Amino acid sequence: MSNQDLFTNAVVYKSTTTPNRTFQCIIDHQDDEKYVILRLTPYDTTTNSEAIEDRWVLASTETEAYHSDIKNWYCSNTADAHKNIWRSPVCMGGGIIKVDHENKTVKTWGTSGGYGDPPLEIVEQILKTVYEPQGYQLDIKITDEVRELIKPKHRGYWAD
User: Fold this and answer.
1) Which of 24, 69, 118, 155 has its CA at 20 to 30 Å from residue 76's CA atom?
2) Catalytic residue among 29, 67, 82, 154
């Protein structure tokens, strides 16, 4: 699936616990990679403040090695679609996520050296909303692990 398809086909989920809160989960891998939690706010916040949507996005890709690069990957792939609708995303933290579709498990751990811990409640809400209805088992934690590993598939990787 191309990046364009990945972002165009990303489902927007409504929170079952918080009015006007929505989620997106954009992951393009089936192993362990870093992820970020991004918060989007709409450009127009003056109309009906009760109806203002609060969007949270969990984004993770196998092509980027650092949390800041994942945020940039998300921003560059959504810039046109978000123009005049959403302000630039704010990164609220990050960690590591492993998605195993064969065994139907999702696990998170770690933290971001640059952005810090992600909001655990938001990570839980996104993953429970997206994966529990499909029968996945979740193991959601935040630990003090900061991954420095760069893999050969990451953009900009070079071997010594």
Assistant:
1) 118
2) 67
Distance in angstroms (rounded) separating the CA atoms of residues 65 and 70: 8
Q: What was the pLDDT predicted at 52? A: 75
Q: pLDDT-based confidence at 95, cuts 50/70/90?
A: very high
The answer to the question of residue 112 being in a domain is yes
Q: Is the pLDDT of residue 154 over 80?
A: no
What's 55's domain CATH number? 3.50.20.20
- The annotated binding site is made up of 34
In a domain, 132, yes or no: yes
Q: What is the value of pTM for the model shown?
A: 0.88
Binding site membership for substrate: which residues? 34
- Structural domains of the chain, count: 1
Q: Helix or strand or coil: residue 88?
A: coil
For residue 147, tell me if it sits in a domain.
no
| 67 is an active site residue | yes
